[in-house]
Amino acid sequence: MNILEVQNVRKAFDKNVAVNGVTLAVPKQSIFGLLGPNGAGKTTLIRMITNILEPDSGTILLDGEEDPKKRMLRIGYMPEERGLYKKMKVGEQLLYLAQLKNMRLKDAKEQLKYWFEKFEISDWYNKKVEELSKGMQQKIQFISTVIHQPTIIILDEPFSGLDPVNSNLIQREIFELREKGATIIFSTHRMEQVEQICEFIVLIHKGNKVLDGPLNDIKNQFKQNLFSIHYKGEKPNLNGHFSIFEEKEQEVVVQLQEEQSSKELLTYFLENGGAVESFNEILPSINEIFINQVGGISDE
Fold first, then answer.
1. Cα separations (Å) of 238 from 279, 281, 293?
2. DSSP state of 283
3. Alpha helices in 104-160 (DSSP H)
4. Distance in angstroms (rounded) separating the CA atoms of residues 300 and 283
5. Partners of 243 in the β-ladder
6. Using CA atoms, how far apart are residues 99 and 85, in angstroms rounded to an integer?
7. Cα–Cα dist 181/282, whole Å
8. How far apart are CA 10 and CA 22, in angstroms?
9. Residue 45 zone, left/alpha/beta (φ > 0; ψ -120 to 50; rest)
10. How far apart are the C-alpha atoms of 229 and 213, rounded to whole Å?
């Protein structure tokens, strides 16, 4: 079941088409990666989903409803350009932002207490944002995004500027929020994070959708029939039966032809004296697919 559907959405600024008829569907309670080079149109698409910008054409549905105002209240959005009030006290600011999302003050205070205790930052309540480090501000920005318990949480480059400890903290929270029922849309150009977090992805390039679907399906779509064999001792002579793609110390990578099977390769290796330690199919990384699809060139 899809919680969010974007149907043939288009947005142009003068003659520059930022989003060109993009259609995508976000499954409920999933972690969905919105990928693309800088300038691809990701942020413009997010701003239309969050009702900051109005599409020139197309439809955006949340749980089958088109009402932009209802959609705005059910979404939590953490933009790449962080937007906290630097002179305002942390606690007061978070309560204010929660109430802007139609949250009752009593409920907002309960949620604020929950997150302050969870992040072990209860003594930050009366600090001004400008007194906090960048990593601390990121935590406050994250709380401001999720405090009203949104149905969809959109995170634009959420790990930007975070050290490894705080990156792991936010990553754990993403998984936990998903387990509690939220849907996460994760926008980034850092492919290694996609591998760790996302279940579904869409790739945007120059305002157009290039590909989308389950992460594993896409990796299988672009596989090259490569298999890695780690072995002990001497490597058996493959006698031209199989095409060697790469050789390393105690490892050989074989590229199978269309008519060959992995079982055939492994059996041949073992029957010819190979002592196999591991045998694995090599799927392309999302970074490799990304570069292959967009040519390694930024849209800026």
1. 16, 18, 34
2. P
3. 105-118, 134-146
4. 29
5. 255
6. 16
7. 33
8. 7
9. alpha
10. 30
Q: How far apart are CA 184 and CA 250, in angstroms?
A: 42
Nearest to 35 by CA among 190, 154, 197: 190
pLDDT by 10s per residue, the chain, length 300:
899 999 999 999 988 999 999 999 999 999 999 988 888 899 999 999 999 999 999 999 999 998 888 888 899 999 877 678 888 999 999 999 999 999 999 999 999 999 999 988 888 999 998 898 888 888 899 999 999 999 999 998 888 777 888 888 888 999 999 999 999 999 887 777 788 889 999 999 999 999 999 999 999 999 999 999 999 988 888 878 889 899 988 899 999 998 899 999 999 988 888 789 999 999 998 888 888 887 755 544
Question: With respect to CATH, is domain 224-282 assigned 2.60.40?
Answer: no
3-state secondary structure at position 182:
coil
For the entire predicted model, the pTM comes to: 0.85
For residue 228 the two structure tokens come to 């890695």
Domain 1-74+151-159+177-223, CATH class in plain words: alpha beta
Q: Is residue 224 classed as helix, strand or coil in its secondary structure?
A: coil
